[in-house]
Specification:
Blueprint lengths: L4 H16 L7 H8 L3 H4 L4 H12 L4 H34 L7 H18 L8
Length: about 130
């Protein structure tokens, strides 16, 4: 039996939630350690932006919340801050799942997470898909 588009999307969202929630979003110091050699990411990271990224991580299917977090980041630092925090979130994902990067479900979650954030942030400041 093949999935139709909506069934496939539902399955991918279920997988994404499962993969993301295997780990809690790390605290500020742990994320800072992960990005300490990435000055462009580190420069845009702070307590408020970390809180936004944690809320996105824990609510990846809530488009309104993700958009609101993007608006908060944009208000504080514009496109540069949005981009740096987006890449920080992706780096956190890769770091936490580094031993599972060949797992097809982790790859599905990676792709879906990026898509959901890009859709929610499209039109926030200078962010475009």
């Amino acid at each position: 039996m093949n999935f139709n588009d909506s069934e496939m999307e539902d399955k991918e969202i279920e997988i994404t939630l499962d993969v993301l929630l295997r780990y809690e979003y790390p605290d500020y110091e742990d994320v800072e350690e992960m990005i300490r050699n990435m000055i462009d990411l580190w420069a845009e990271y702070g307590d408020e932006n970390r809180e936004c990224m944690e809320r996105i991580w824990n609510n990846i299917v809530d488009r309104d919340l993700i958009q609101t977090m993007g608006e908060k980041i944009n208000k504080r630092g514009g496109f540069q801050a949005m981009q740096a925090n987006y890449y920080t979130l992706l780096h956190v994902f890769r770091t936490l799942h580094k031993k599972q990067l060949n797992d097809p479900n982790v790859l599905i979650a990676w792709r879906r997470m990026k898509f959901l954030i890009n859709v929610a942030w499209h039109g926030v400041g200078d962010w475009r898909m």
